Amino acid sequence: MLRILHSKYIPFGNYAAINLFGFIVVKKGYKMRWVDIHHELIHSRQQAEMLWIPFYTWYVLEWLLKLLKYHNLTRAYFNISFEREAYLNQHDINYLRRRRWWAWTRYLVK
């Protein structure tokens, strides 16, 4: 079941949406496109297979390592394996049907 919440405080910065524990939180006034929803649904699948706390722990640790590598907040974000999987497959509406468990691990090395 898709759960979308609207907030004027979350997400921060220039981000339009964030997936928090299976809830998609959208910046108030932003109209979600199907590709945005699909991107967040990919994150929901990642969270479900890792469980939530390990997912967010891994996400933050990987982001910190990428930040040390690239010295750039945006570049670090776009190179997190979870984000790479989601961005590279968000336009493929059938991706979640054929996605294998732990598919994000294919995007770890970069």
Gyration radius (Cα, Å) is 14 Å
Please, what is the oligomeric state? Answer: single chain
Q: What does the overall shape look like?
A: globular
Average pLDDT value? 94
**How many strands, what sense, and barrel or not for the largest sheet?**
3 strands, mixed
Secondary-structure topology with pairs:
Blueprint: E1 3-7, E2 17-20, E3 23-27, H1 34-50, H2 52-70, H3 73-78, H4 81-89, H5 95-98
Parallel strand pairs: 1-3
Antiparallel strand pairs: 2-3
Helix pairs in contact: 1-2, 1-4
What can you tell me about this protein's structure?
The chain has 110 residues and is α+β, with helices and mostly antiparallel strands. The chain has one domain (3-107). The chain is 50% helix and 13% strand. A three-stranded mixed sheet has the order 1-3-2, covered by helices on one side. Strand 2 and strand 3 form a beta hairpin. The protein is globular. The N and C termini lie far apart (33 Å).
